[in-house]
Write a structure and sequence with these properties.
This protein is of the alpha/beta class and 181 residues long. Helices cover 23% and strands 21% of the residues. Strands 3-2-1-6-9-10-11 form a 7-stranded mixed sheet. The protein has a two-stranded antiparallel ribbon with strand order 4-5. It has a two-stranded antiparallel sheet with strand order 7-8. Bound molecules: the ligand Nc1nc2c(c(=O)[nH]1)N(C=O)[C@@H](CNc1ccc(C(=O)N[C@@H](CCC(=O)O)C(=O)O)cc1)CN2 and adenosine-5'-triphosphate (ATP).
Protein backbone atom coordinates (compact mmCIF):
# COMPACT_ATOMS: atom_id res chain seq x y z
CA UNK A 1 0.00 0.00 0.00
CA UNK A 2 1.21 3.53 -0.85
CA UNK A 3 2.03 5.77 2.09
CA UNK A 4 -0.40 8.61 2.80
CA UNK A 5 1.87 11.28 1.32
CA UNK A 6 2.23 9.47 -2.00
CA UNK A 7 -1.48 8.65 -2.03
CA UNK A 8 -2.39 12.33 -1.47
CA UNK A 9 -0.16 13.43 -4.36
CA UNK A 10 -1.66 10.78 -6.64
CA UNK A 11 -5.24 11.65 -5.68
CA UNK A 12 -4.66 15.41 -6.20
CA UNK A 13 -3.39 14.60 -9.69
CA UNK A 14 -6.36 12.37 -10.49
CA UNK A 15 -8.80 14.99 -9.20
CA UNK A 16 -7.22 17.81 -11.24
CA UNK A 17 -7.22 15.73 -14.43
CA UNK A 18 -10.80 14.53 -13.92
CA UNK A 19 -12.14 18.05 -13.41
CA UNK A 20 -10.18 19.46 -16.36
CA UNK A 21 -11.56 16.79 -18.67
CA UNK A 22 -15.15 16.29 -17.42
CA UNK A 23 -16.19 19.50 -15.59
CA UNK A 24 -18.30 17.43 -13.13
CA UNK A 25 -20.78 18.86 -10.64
CA UNK A 26 -22.66 17.60 -7.61
CA UNK A 27 -26.44 17.59 -7.20
CA UNK A 28 -28.25 17.53 -3.84
CA UNK A 29 -29.67 14.00 -3.41
CA UNK A 30 -33.06 13.18 -1.85
CA UNK A 31 -31.41 11.64 1.23
CA UNK A 32 -29.74 14.99 1.92
CA UNK A 33 -32.87 17.07 1.24
CA UNK A 34 -34.89 14.90 3.66
CA UNK A 35 -32.54 15.81 6.51
CA UNK A 36 -32.90 19.57 6.09
CA UNK A 37 -35.02 21.55 8.57
CA UNK A 38 -35.30 25.27 9.26
CA UNK A 39 -32.67 26.37 11.76
CA UNK A 40 -30.23 23.50 11.22
CA UNK A 41 -26.59 24.53 10.86
CA UNK A 42 -24.89 23.08 7.79
CA UNK A 43 -21.10 23.36 7.74
CA UNK A 44 -19.89 23.76 4.16
CA UNK A 45 -16.53 24.87 2.70
CA UNK A 46 -15.20 27.09 -0.10
CA UNK A 47 -13.62 24.66 -2.56
CA UNK A 48 -9.89 24.79 -3.26
CA UNK A 49 -8.68 24.01 -6.77
CA UNK A 50 -10.42 20.92 -8.16
CA UNK A 51 -12.27 19.95 -4.98
CA UNK A 52 -15.96 19.03 -5.27
CA UNK A 53 -18.03 22.23 -5.04
CA UNK A 54 -20.78 21.99 -2.37
CA UNK A 55 -22.72 24.99 -3.81
CA UNK A 56 -25.78 22.95 -4.96
CA UNK A 57 -26.16 21.54 -1.43
CA UNK A 58 -25.73 24.98 0.10
CA UNK A 59 -28.48 26.38 -2.15
CA UNK A 60 -30.82 23.56 -1.10
CA UNK A 61 -29.99 24.13 2.59
CA UNK A 62 -30.66 27.88 2.30
CA UNK A 63 -33.96 27.22 0.53
CA UNK A 64 -34.94 24.93 3.43
CA UNK A 65 -34.21 27.68 5.97
CA UNK A 66 -30.91 26.28 7.27
CA UNK A 67 -27.95 28.36 8.45
CA UNK A 68 -24.65 27.92 6.61
CA UNK A 69 -21.35 27.78 8.44
CA UNK A 70 -17.80 27.79 7.07
CA UNK A 71 -14.57 26.64 8.69
CA UNK A 72 -12.26 29.30 10.09
CA UNK A 73 -8.66 28.12 9.81
CA UNK A 74 -5.68 29.55 11.71
CA UNK A 75 -2.85 27.10 10.94
CA UNK A 76 -2.16 23.34 10.81
CA UNK A 77 -1.87 22.98 14.59
CA UNK A 78 -4.95 24.95 15.64
CA UNK A 79 -8.33 23.18 15.51
CA UNK A 80 -10.75 24.69 12.99
CA UNK A 81 -13.97 26.25 14.26
CA UNK A 82 -17.16 26.67 12.31
CA UNK A 83 -18.57 30.18 11.96
CA UNK A 84 -21.94 31.33 10.62
CA UNK A 85 -21.90 32.77 7.12
CA UNK A 86 -24.64 34.72 5.30
CA UNK A 87 -24.60 33.97 1.58
CA UNK A 88 -22.70 36.71 -0.22
CA UNK A 89 -21.05 38.05 2.97
CA UNK A 90 -17.44 39.12 2.59
CA UNK A 91 -14.67 36.53 2.90
CA UNK A 92 -11.03 37.22 3.63
CA UNK A 93 -7.89 35.38 2.55
CA UNK A 94 -6.92 32.61 4.99
CA UNK A 95 -4.07 30.09 5.10
CA UNK A 96 -3.64 27.41 2.37
CA UNK A 97 -5.24 29.68 -0.25
CA UNK A 98 -8.63 29.47 1.50
CA UNK A 99 -11.29 32.17 1.49
CA UNK A 100 -12.99 32.37 4.86
CA UNK A 101 -15.02 34.60 7.17
CA UNK A 102 -12.94 36.95 9.34
CA UNK A 103 -11.74 35.91 12.80
CA UNK A 104 -14.46 38.04 14.48
CA UNK A 105 -17.26 35.77 13.17
CA UNK A 106 -19.18 33.90 15.89
CA UNK A 107 -18.69 30.15 16.43
CA UNK A 108 -21.63 27.80 15.77
CA UNK A 109 -22.15 24.04 16.27
CA UNK A 110 -22.95 22.24 13.00
CA UNK A 111 -25.71 19.64 12.64
CA UNK A 112 -24.35 18.46 9.29
CA UNK A 113 -20.68 18.67 8.24
CA UNK A 114 -20.06 18.70 4.48
CA UNK A 115 -16.48 17.47 4.37
CA UNK A 116 -13.92 17.99 1.61
CA UNK A 117 -11.53 15.09 1.10
CA UNK A 118 -8.72 13.77 -1.06
CA UNK A 119 -9.67 10.10 -0.93
CA UNK A 120 -12.41 7.81 0.38
CA UNK A 121 -13.29 4.13 0.50
CA UNK A 122 -16.69 2.43 0.61
CA UNK A 123 -16.42 1.84 4.35
CA UNK A 124 -16.56 5.62 4.88
CA UNK A 125 -12.87 6.07 5.65
CA UNK A 126 -11.49 9.39 4.50
CA UNK A 127 -8.08 10.79 3.58
CA UNK A 128 -7.83 14.54 4.13
CA UNK A 129 -5.06 17.13 4.01
CA UNK A 130 -3.27 15.54 6.95
CA UNK A 131 -3.60 18.37 9.46
CA UNK A 132 -6.30 16.51 11.40
CA UNK A 133 -8.66 19.48 11.07
CA UNK A 134 -11.75 17.40 10.26
CA UNK A 135 -10.69 14.48 12.47
CA UNK A 136 -10.70 16.89 15.39
CA UNK A 137 -13.90 18.66 14.27
CA UNK A 138 -15.70 15.29 14.20
CA UNK A 139 -14.62 14.62 17.80
CA UNK A 140 -15.74 18.12 18.84
CA UNK A 141 -19.18 17.62 17.18
CA UNK A 142 -19.89 13.90 17.66
CA UNK A 143 -23.62 14.19 16.90
CA UNK A 144 -23.18 15.96 13.56
CA UNK A 145 -24.01 14.04 10.38
CA UNK A 146 -20.69 13.60 8.51
CA UNK A 147 -21.07 13.74 4.74
CA UNK A 148 -18.00 13.47 2.50
CA UNK A 149 -18.07 15.22 -0.89
CA UNK A 150 -15.75 14.03 -3.66
CA UNK A 151 -15.44 13.10 -7.30
CA UNK A 152 -15.78 9.39 -8.13
CA UNK A 153 -12.09 9.16 -9.16
CA UNK A 154 -11.12 9.82 -5.53
CA UNK A 155 -12.37 6.37 -4.47
CA UNK A 156 -9.67 3.93 -3.39
CA UNK A 157 -10.22 0.23 -2.59
CA UNK A 158 -9.32 0.55 1.10
CA UNK A 159 -7.78 3.28 3.23
CA UNK A 160 -5.79 2.41 6.34
CA UNK A 161 -7.88 3.61 9.31
CA UNK A 162 -5.82 5.24 12.05
CA UNK A 163 -7.07 5.03 15.66
CA UNK A 164 -8.27 8.67 15.60
CA UNK A 165 -10.16 8.37 12.30
CA UNK A 166 -13.92 8.96 12.61
CA UNK A 167 -15.77 7.39 9.65
CA UNK A 168 -18.25 9.27 7.46
CA UNK A 169 -22.00 8.60 7.61
CA UNK A 170 -22.45 9.17 3.88
CA UNK A 171 -20.57 10.09 0.72
CA UNK A 172 -21.69 12.03 -2.34
CA UNK A 173 -19.97 11.97 -5.71
CA UNK A 174 -21.12 13.20 -9.14
CA UNK A 175 -22.27 9.59 -9.74
CA UNK A 176 -23.84 8.37 -6.52
CA UNK A 177 -24.93 8.75 -2.92
CA UNK A 178 -23.27 6.16 -0.67
CA UNK A 179 -25.08 5.69 2.66
CA UNK A 180 -23.08 4.05 5.46
CA UNK A 181 -24.28 2.90 8.87
N1 LIG B 1 -11.86 23.78 0.73
C1 LIG B 1 -11.36 23.28 1.84
N2 LIG B 1 -11.52 23.91 2.98
C2 LIG B 1 -10.98 23.40 4.12
C3 LIG B 1 -10.24 22.20 4.11
C4 LIG B 1 -10.09 21.54 2.85
O1 LIG B 1 -9.49 20.46 2.72
N3 LIG B 1 -10.66 22.11 1.76
N4 LIG B 1 -9.69 21.73 5.28
C5 LIG B 1 -9.28 20.41 5.47
O2 LIG B 1 -8.76 20.02 6.48
C6 LIG B 1 -9.54 22.67 6.40
C7 LIG B 1 -8.32 23.51 6.15
N5 LIG B 1 -7.16 22.73 6.32
C8 LIG B 1 -6.17 22.55 5.40
C9 LIG B 1 -5.03 21.93 5.82
C10 LIG B 1 -4.00 21.71 4.97
C11 LIG B 1 -4.09 22.10 3.64
C12 LIG B 1 -2.95 21.84 2.72
O3 LIG B 1 -1.96 21.26 3.12
N6 LIG B 1 -3.05 22.20 1.44
C13 LIG B 1 -2.06 21.88 0.44
C14 LIG B 1 -2.62 21.90 -0.98
C15 LIG B 1 -3.99 21.29 -1.05
C16 LIG B 1 -4.49 20.83 -2.39
O4 LIG B 1 -4.09 21.30 -3.47
O5 LIG B 1 -5.38 19.93 -2.38
C17 LIG B 1 -0.90 22.83 0.52
O6 LIG B 1 -1.09 23.96 1.00
O7 LIG B 1 0.19 22.40 0.11
C18 LIG B 1 -5.25 22.69 3.20
C19 LIG B 1 -6.29 22.93 4.08
C20 LIG B 1 -10.78 23.51 6.51
N7 LIG B 1 -11.15 24.09 5.26
N1 LIG C 1 -8.82 14.07 17.95
C1 LIG C 1 -7.58 14.51 17.68
N2 LIG C 1 -6.91 15.30 18.55
C2 LIG C 1 -5.66 15.73 18.28
N3 LIG C 1 -4.98 15.43 17.16
C3 LIG C 1 -5.59 14.65 16.26
C4 LIG C 1 -6.93 14.15 16.47
N4 LIG C 1 -7.26 13.43 15.39
C5 LIG C 1 -6.21 13.46 14.57
N5 LIG C 1 -5.21 14.18 15.07
C6 LIG C 1 -3.88 14.41 14.46
O1 LIG C 1 -4.09 14.97 13.18
C7 LIG C 1 -3.32 14.30 12.19
C8 LIG C 1 -4.28 13.67 11.22
O2 LIG C 1 -3.58 12.99 10.24
P1 LIG C 1 -4.32 12.16 9.12
O3 LIG C 1 -3.28 11.80 8.12
O4 LIG C 1 -5.16 11.08 9.70
O5 LIG C 1 -5.32 13.26 8.55
P2 LIG C 1 -6.34 13.13 7.39
O6 LIG C 1 -6.79 11.70 7.23
O7 LIG C 1 -5.77 13.74 6.20
O8 LIG C 1 -7.59 13.92 7.94
P3 LIG C 1 -7.90 15.46 8.15
O9 LIG C 1 -8.77 15.85 7.00
O10 LIG C 1 -8.68 15.46 9.42
O11 LIG C 1 -6.63 16.20 8.16
C9 LIG C 1 -2.48 13.29 12.93
O12 LIG C 1 -1.20 13.85 13.13
C10 LIG C 1 -3.21 13.08 14.24
O13 LIG C 1 -2.33 12.81 15.30
Amino acid sequence: MMDKKALRARLRGLRDAFVAEHRPSLAAPAAFLRRLQPGLVIASYMPLGSEADPAPLVRAALAAGCTIALPHVVDRATPIRFVAWQQGAALVAGPFGLSQPGAEAGTVAPDIILTPLLGFDRAGNRLGQGAGHYDRAFVAHPDAWRVGLAWSVQEVPALPADPWDVPLHALLTEREWIALS
